[in-house]
Amino acid sequence: IGAAKLVVVVAIFLLTFYVISQVFEIKMDANLGHIFARSALDAAARSTKPPRYKCGISKACPEKHFAFKMASGAANVVGPKICVEDNVLMSGVKNNVGRGINVALVNGKTGETLDTKFFDMWGGDVAPFIDFLKSIPDGTIVFMGTYDDGATKLNEEARKLIADLGSTSITNLGFRDNWVFCGGKGIKTKSPFEQHIKNNKDTNKYEGWPEVVEMEGCIPQKQD
C-alpha cells in the first residue's frame, strides 16, 4: 500500500509540474509575442516619423555646407537664438544674449565657433562694436540678430562695416526693428541670408515690437 501511495504522489507531482510548466510557457510565449509586436510597431512608427536635420531645419544640407537656424529676439522678453551644425551658439538658455545686436563668429573652413558677443545699441556705445567688426578675420562667417532695439546707436561707419559683410537691410534698420543676418568677412557679393521686419505700430505683433523673424539655410564651406 505504501508503495502504491508513493507512486500516486509522484504521479500527481509530475502532473502538477507538467501543467505549471505548460502554463508558464504559454504565458512566456504570450509575453514574447507582445514584446515582438510592440517592437514592430515602434519600428513602423520610427520609419514614418519625419527625419530630423541639424538645428531642426526643414531639409538636409549638401556636403561641405554648414546648417544653421536663427531667430531674432521677441520684444524685450525672449532673446535671440543662433544654431550652427546642431550647436546652439547663443540663446536665452545659454545666458549669453543681450539687448542690441547679438553676434556669433564661425570659422568658414571648419565651422568652429570663434566668438559670441552682444552690443547694446540703445544705452551702450557704438565704438566697441565698430572695433569688433574691424577685427573680424577674413573667411569668418558672421551671424547677427537683434534683441529689443538694435539700431538707435548705430552710426554710418558701423552700418557700412556690416554692409561690407553682405547686408543690404542694415542701411534701413530702425528703432526696434527685428533683423537676422548671416554674412561673411571678405564676401564679394550680397548675402542671400537676411530677414528684416520694420517696427510699425499698425502691424506689430507685440505692443511696441514686431513679430520674431526666423531664418534657416546652408552655408557653403570656405574652400582654399
TrEMBL record:
InterPro entries hit by this protein: FAM3 (IPR039220), ILEI/PANDER_dom (IPR039477), ILEI_FAM3C (IPR039475)
The record, for CDD domains, names: ILEI_FAM3C
**What keywords does the record list, in alphabetical order?**
Disulfide bond, Lectin, Secreted, Signal
Primary localisation category:
secreted
Q: Where in the cell is it found?
A: Secreted
A molecular function annotated in GO for this UniProt entry is: carbohydrate binding
One Gene Ontology cellular component annotation? extracellular region
Q: What range(s) does the ILEI/PANDER domain occupy? A: 99-186
Can the keyword Disulfide bond be found in this entry's annotation? Answer: yes
Q: Is Magnesium among this UniProt entry's keywords?
A: no
Query: Sorted alphabetically, which PROSITE patterns does this protein's record hold?
Result: GG_LECTIN (PS52031)
Which family, according to UniProt?
Belongs to the FAM3 family.
Put simply, this protein is called: FAM3C protein
**Organism annotation:** Columbina picui (Picui ground-dove)
State the encoding gene. Fam3c
